[in-house]
Amino acid sequence: MSKTILVVGAGGQIGTELIPHLQKTYGDDRIIAAELRPEVCDKLTHMARTECLNALDKEAYAALVAKYRPDWIFNLVAVLSATGEKNPQAAWSINMGALFNSLELGREFRCGVFTPSSIGAFGKNTPANGTPQDTVMRPNTIYGICKVTGELLSDYYHTHFGVDTRSVRFPGIISYKTLPGGGTTDYAVEIFYAAVKGEPYVCPLPQTAYMDMMYMPDALEACTKLIEADPARLEHRNSFNIASMSFNPNEIYEAIRRRIAGFQMTYRVDPVKAAIADSWPNYMDDSCARREWGWQPEWDLDAMVDDMLLHLREKILFRE
């Protein structure tokens, strides 16, 4: 099961936790972290071998792949949904440029490419409840358009060039270790920080906005489980629905309030985020992932809330 893995865009919410998860599975010296921002590279050096890289620079990217000869590239470079709507041209350039270079290098160096997709790939005319694996996908955000395009392009590189491309459609990801970076589901992390600090929280989404969510440990396990899956079993590749829990802002608020008496939340709806959330699934059907590679989440809402509060209390107390 030994693999060398290059994680590109390693300094984001997923990457900073994926690196130690991969190291536990494959060994510390088999994981290479690549990140654009020098200040983030400095922070990553204590975790893994680190390289500063602009994934849009094809020559520099190719030199890095030639240096390490990875078995897999994890392309985590992404401008997220809410941020992308502020500058859609830059979001397209960054998201698609990094993906195209990753796929080309996968073809050239014969390595696998894992690029996360998202619930953002769906749109308002997709069935919202039990969203099927294969269904209508007409997103209305540049982030979602990039994700659908990325799924199709990754399938193309597998079919035409034999690149081992694999992907999951991540729900909103909740973590106590790293703050999210401009997504519509960020509220589900921010609310915990407010609660632990004893502050009221102002939610940017309406209380009825159901969305799929996932605790980070399940998200990380999905990554390694999928790249270890027998390719002969994979009827789908790009990209698998995976699900864990679904809730709206009021439900997570009540779950926290049962544990922190007096916690208060009000609403100041951001129309952009609300429209995005309204176009995404309430909950996905992940039966294909369960059947084809044994996907099985471990965390539900109550277990996640308990763990988040425990670790955030320790984190904030330590900082103080």
Short characterization:
By secondary structure, the chain is α/β, with parallel strands linked by helices.
Provide an overview of this structure.
This protein has 320 residues and is of the alpha/beta class. The chain folds into 2 domains: 5-171 and 215-241, 3-Layer(aba) Sandwich (Rossmann fold); 173-213 and 245-319, Rossmann fold, CATH 3.40.50. The chain is built from 12 helices and 16 strands. It has helices at residues 15-26, 38-44, 58-68, 81-86, 88-109, 142-161, 187-197, 216-227, 249-257, 271-278, 287-293, 301-319; strands at residues 5-8, 31-35, 49-52, 72-75, 112-114, 117-118, 129-131, 165-166, 168-170, 172-174, 201-203, 211-215, 240-241, 245-247, 265-267, 283-284. It has a 6-stranded parallel beta sheet with strand order 3-2-1-4-5-8, with helices on both faces. It has a 3-stranded parallel beta sheet with strand order 6-9-13. It has a 3-stranded mixed beta sheet with strand order 10-12-14. Helix 1 (15-26) links the parallel strand 1 (5-8) and strand 2. The chain starts with a strand and ends with a helix. The model has no long low-confidence stretch (mean pLDDT 94).
